[in-house]
Amino acid sequence: xxxxxxxxxxxxxxxxxxxxxxxxxxxxxxxxxxxxxxxxxxxxxxxxxxxxxxxxxxxxxxxxxxxxxxxxxxxxxxxxxxxxxxxxxxxxxxxxxxxxxxxxxxxxxxxxxxxxxxxxxxxxxxxxxxxxxxxxxxxxxxxxxxxxxxxxxxxxxxxxxxxxxxxxxxxxxxxxxxxxxxxxxxxxxxxxxxxxxxxxxxxxxxxxxxxxxxxxxxxxxxxxxxxxxxxxxxxxxxxxxxxxxxxxxxxxxxxxxxxxxxxxxxxxxxxxxxxxxxxxxxxxxxxxxxxxxxxxxxxxxxxxxxxxxxxxxxxxxxxxxxxxxxxxxxxxxxxxxxxxxxxxxxxxxxxxxxxxxxxxxxxxxxxxxxxxxxxxxxxxxxxxxxxxxxxxxxxxxxxxxxxxxxxxxxxxxxxxxxxxxxxxxxxxxxxxxxxxxxxxxxxxxxxxxxxxxxxxxxxxxxxxxxxxxxxxxxxxxxxxxxxxxxxxxxxxxxxxxxxxxxxxxxxxxxxxxxxxxxxxxxxxxxxxxxxxxxxxxxxxxxxxxxxxxxxxxxxxxxxxxxxxxxxxxxxxxxxxxxxxxxxxxxxxxxxxxxxxxxxxxxxxxxxxxxxxxxxxxxxxxxxxxxxxxxxxxxxxxxxxxxxxxxxxxx
Length: 650
Fold this sequence. Notes:
With about 650 residues, the chain is α+β, with helices and mostly antiparallel strands. The chain has 22 helices and 23 strands.
């Protein structure tokens, strides 16, 4: 699954034969009937999926969702798309797959008929198991008969479940004997029960425990040695983890369950340490999580109780608890502590691994810049590769790049070395092969300030052409540097005449600036270059309004140089400096801003129109996630989904 392709360019549509359940526990269950696949979605998520009734790309749907204010949180949105694809609810148009045929099950029983009888059987079976003390099997006959009883109970329960599912209008799949199971029994796939109502699912979910408890109770009354395996099967079927029957009943009774897009994530950013912490918080906010934990403790006590009943001292006596009470408490608390410690250790491992990878990459880059430059080989193939990867030269043809590589000469400079031949009156143009170069600009006051730090792949010596209004730039190395250089006159013929002047401004001024600001730290380099091409540099006089309170937001701004004042109701509330941005909340919420922004000192902004920004954001999920995160932090609440009162209408 190519996630980047799916989320940026691939056309998707809803599968043709979908069936949707009624709203159960706050969720719809959507079924692809031919493929027999299911997807649990919230009503808000279903609105998103309905946008694919006509073939659409994911960016188009996301743009519509933002513009019409029904967008879900973006991590949930992208997870929903991938889960819908995996469940065949979404697919590529004209996709052909082999259908899964339902079995023609002829026996039907309406769940309403057996709702109370099954509950009574379950209760009576448990009561008989408590009243008549079971024992370990003492003979081969007891062993064989006990296993046969469990096999018969599971077989009858499967038959009854299939009949109830068909009686409620669901489908039955793949009836078969499971000979490899212990014990062997007849099995039927009744997953279609998820499409039924809550009461019907409760009835179907209690079938297996009811039949097993009834068999265990009758066996304990008639022949205690036969009840052992039935009790084991009952305890296993009611387990609190790994798909136990009772856990399903807990979720059926909840008011709001988690959808498939809110757990077991497959969208990579959701599997990061931050994503897993967010998922943990979401799970802990669900009442069913705490019910499951309480049930787990109760199940552990019940299992210990049944185990103790097989011993010499009955568990209901004071003597038993005097001997074993501390052990039982330690066992339960120890299991909870071990579970929490295991989860914490797993999360710490993932966090440490992510941090170690980032530190390793940073160290390798640092080591290569300071100590590895002597080993850099700049032969013809490596030069061509470097020139091909340069965004400035992306428009040149291969012969033109070859001509440029032949003309360029290798030069090396040490740490903190001035490069005057690239500065105010440049006589050389260079491509940085390794190292970092500081870019300083002379301000109108005569003071020089650092405005950029350039690194591998950037050009120096052309800034006077890229920024003719402010041509006085100076360069100094910050690490040992390896350059490929050529004379400025040769560069005029081989680069300047072949590269549009706008592209020089994009790649020499905007892209290096964007790579260093916090907003773009997690963006792909291609996304940064694309944003640089889409944006334009606008200068503002001191006191000039950039954004007006209460007016329609049509432009997104990033402070490129200087600073600006944020004014709300006539009072200055904040100062924005280079690298900070504004206007995104109004654009994402399709609302009017609640403050004005006024230029202050030497203010220049990168600006991008609303339509271009939304198109750019929807095609780059890393950009969208970062913009959502920062905007939510500024608002003090999640920006998506929008609710009444979250925005001022335009």
